[in-house]
Design goal:
With 151 residues, this protein is of the alpha+beta class. The chain is 29% helix and 24% strand. It has one domain. It contains five helices and seven strands, in the order ββαββαβααβαβ. Strand 4, helix 2 and strand 5 form a beta-alpha-beta unit.
């Protein structure tokens, strides 16, 4: 069983799938991370309170999952599709995060301003990140709220 973190401005005892706002790396869903420091950054980016929610995560074989161990061409193409609003059919998607700087590099590749090789040269200097998104109600049932704390 893994411990996951979710940075927010509210306590989230009952996670749900939010389908609003801009398209995200792995599509719509409830985003968490294994990295507590990253959840703190997410929380501090919110207006109002800064809350780190803590969950226990237990994988279920019934969920269709996609895991990217590292940034790859497959990961890059998946994120480009998701950010363009192309829906995927996974219950859970896990892998590195495309932060704002990485996303700028991705946009440059799509626009033809830099090559794919140049993207990988720039991206390799970014610090490790992690995100896991629960895209369906079945996936949400794999996590259990345990606690929270304020920053």
């Amino acid at each position: 069983m893994d411990k996951l973190f979710h940075g927010s401005n509210v306590i989230v005892e009952h996670p749900d799938i939010r389908i609003r706002g801009y398209e995200k790396d792995f599509g719509y869903g409830f985003y968490c991370t294994l990295l507590e420091s990253q959840a703190k950054k997410w929380a501090l980016s919110k207006k109002g309170k800064h809350v780190v929610n803590v969950y226990e995560y237990e994988e279920h074989n019934e969920c269709k999952a996609k895991t990217f161990k590292e940034m790859s061409e497959d990961w890059l193409n998946f994120i480009i599709d998701c950010r363009r609003g192309i829906r995927q059919d996974f219950d859970i998607v896990e892998g590195p995060m495309a932060d704002d700087q990485i996303w700028n590099y991705i946009e440059d590749v799509v626009a033809g301003n830099i090559t794919s090789n140049a993207f990988w040269e720039l991206a390799k200097f970014k610090h490790p990140t992690h995100q896991i998104v629960f895209c369906t109600q079945k996936a949400i049932e794999c996590i259990r709220y345990t606690s929270h704390y304020l920053l």
